[in-house]
Specification:
alpha/beta, Iron-containing alcohol dehydrogenase, 2 domains, Rossmann fold, ADH_Fe_CS, NAD, 15 helices, three-stranded mixed β-sheet, about 400 residues
């Protein structure tokens, strides 16, 4: 699995801790920005999460010019076009995204339109299309899972053509990611669980896929350790700010890891299941992770065995025979999923979701084979292989 050549890139400034939000005005002024547009969704606003952001900006003498709070769970080119229109009419000069993956992806896409001009977002889809830096852009994540605050990708639905447009460019990366535990204290248990497992999957796939490298490994293993040590603590005590911060940091670390080393079959199956059955991404990650690890087992035995140290701790690692550590790591992931099921009924099988029909498995498998993530899976995947994994995940 060793790489003779690799690249590692993460120019995002990370501002983390219990007063991170208060640094936003300083960061804006440092880039010569004074008229930010804040992009978020109804859920974030209803949870009262905008107040600390607005107060921090106000105390720092920074006025938020306007707020767009109607980003849907699956954002579209229409939404992006509407927000870009507001940005222009209000003469804004910067963007602050407050929310989960959808709000952040939407803000990235808005930044493309307001920086490049025009209303046709599809013209910028693909990789390497953008050639110039975009407007000042800051991200305040409110979930500890997606890692979108440190990734150079965005996905936006074109509802007229019924396709999802991918955007990839280092220019999409925010100028800073603001990681503040105040933003995740009110996350409901099932979202805490699903996003925690999303981050765990990012880190695990980053550590076992074909493009892994020593630097992404360091971020991935640190993320796994933080998640395994803190996810159940937060489930038991949702107001535990220290553990909430640990999970938020783990999400960012896992995002840095997988954006440099890529992901694999878990993501390919998850993207396909999300598109066909409309299941949340984090849930799909949690659901498929152990089944894909079992499929890849003989190809990833060494790194997966090493991951047991971070997943279960030094005592379990030391007392497990070297040739059983990979299986024990999968077992530890299954135990974590069982504990989350006890806490909030986070589904462990496709059957437990109640949203998937058995006759959809073939279509999910076919769509997954066309997903870009599958290129970096450590073991070749045929249609029959993908179907076999889906049948095991059925229940």
């Amino acid at each position: 699995m060793s790489q003779r050549y690799y690249e590692f890139f993460c120019p995002v400034k990370v501002i983390a801790g219990k007063a991170a939000l208060e640094h936003i005005p300083y960061e804006l002024s440092g880039l010569g920005a004074g008229r930010p547009l804040l992009i978020t969704d109804k859920g974030v606003r209803a949870a009262g999460l905008l107040e600390p952001v607005l107060e921090a900006c106000e105390e720092g003498g920074q006025e938020i010019v306007t707020i767009y709070d109607d980003v849907p769970p699956d954002s579209s080119t229409h939404v992006v076009k509407d927000i870009a229109g507001i940005y222009r009419s209000e003469q804004c000069d910067s963007i602050i995204a407050v929310g989960g993956g959808s709000a952040i992806d939407t803000a990235k896409a808005v930044n493309i339109l307001v920086s490049e001009g025009g209303d046709d977002l599809s013209a910028y889809a693909g990789a390497g299309v953008l050639t110039n830096p975009l407007k000042p852009f800051f991200v305040v994540p409110t979930t500890a899972g997606t890692g979108s605050e440190v990734t150079s990708v965005a996905v936006i639905a074109d509802t007229e053509k019924s396709v999802k447009l991918p955007f990839t460019s280092s220019f999409l990366l925010p100028d800073a990611a603001i990681i503040d535990p105040r933003m995740t204290l009110t996350l409901p248990p099932h979202i805490t669980a699903a996003t925690g497992m999303d981050a765990l999957t990012h880190a695990t796939e980053a550590f076992t896929c074909m493009a892994k490298n020593p630097l992404s490994d360091a971020y991935a293993t640190a993320a796994v350790k933080k998640i395994s040590n803190n996810l159940l603590k937060v489930m038991d005590n949702p107001k535990n700010a220290d553990s909430r911060l640990e999970l938020a940091e783990a999400s960012t670390m896992a995002g840095i890891a997988f954006s440099n080393s890529m992901v694999g079959l878990v993501h390919a199956l998850g993207h396909a299941t999300g598109a066909i059955c409309h299941l949340p991404h984090g849930l799909c990650m949690s659901l498929y992770l152990p089944y894909v690890l079992e499929y890849n087992l003989e190809t990833i035995r060494e790194p997966l065995g090493e991951l047991l140290l971070y997943m279960a701790g030094p005592d379990v690692y030391a007392t497990t025979p070297a040739n059983r550590r990979a299986e024990e790591c999968i077992s530890a992931i299954r135990k974590l999923r069982d504990a989350l099921y006890q806490h909030c009924k986070l589904p462990r099988t496709l059957q437990e979701t109640g949203n998937v029909e058995q006759d959809q498995l073939d279509r999910i498998a076919r769509v997954a084979l066309d997903d870009g993530s599958i290129m970096f899976n450590p073991r070749e995947v045929t249609l029959d292989d993908a179907l076999a994994v889906l049948k095991r995940a059925w229940g």
